[in-house]
Amino acid sequence: MLLRSIATFFCMLLFMGTAQAATIMVWGDSLSAGYGLQADEAWPTLLQTRLEEKGFRHTVVNASVSGETSAGGRSRLPAALEQHEPDIVILELGANDGLRGLPPKLLAENLDAMISAAQGAGAQVLLVGMQMPPNYGPVYTRLFAQTFATVSKARKVPLVPFLLEGFADQPELFLNDGIHPTADAQHKVLDTIWHGLKPLLGRH
């Protein structure tokens, strides 16, 4: 009887060790969808490779859509949460709101709603910020950038302040449109994301 109990215990441990890996869902726009790149060049694909190299058993689901706004992402999110059941959501939306000059207040409301939905589904959230170029005016660019910090603080979620940190002023690292990072720049984006993501990985 004792031997059978021990055998059952070790079977349970084995099952736990082979349980389904945690899921990371990237919820972004063209900056995460890999616009203008090969599928294996985008930073979410590079993230999957890095996770495997470092021994993490997480699976990356890239549910990003080029051209997506925060409003569009908000409307699509419930179905994606139900489908993928993510443990971590990397929320990278807002750039298209800024490019269209949409009110930062609206962006804040949509980000807040998405974080609330993700947390309600049991996921941790990493919020990724964006900044607008100076030609949008000092008032708008300041309010836009502050929106991410404000929502992050209110919702108590970690923040990557700027997705393009460290190379936004280097035109050679962008495609001809001047907006989307090249394949060479994807590694820099990944390093920026990794800094904010790594503390969350040990919880799954």
From TrEMBL:
UniProt-listed InterPro entries: Ester_Hydrolysis_Enzymes, SGNH_hydro, SGNH_hydro_sf
Manganese is among the record's keywords: no
Keyword set, alphabetical order: Signal
Lineage: Bacteria, Pseudomonadati, Pseudomonadota, Betaproteobacteria, Rhodocyclales
Location of the SGNH hydrolase-type esterase domain: 28-185
Pfam families: Lipase_GDSL_2
Stretches of the chain forming a coiled coil according to its record: none
GO molecular function, a single term: phosphatidylcholine lysophospholipase activity
TM spans (from-to): none
Signal peptide: 1-21
Taxonomy, superkingdom: Bacteria
Protein name: SGNH hydrolase-type esterase domain-containing protein
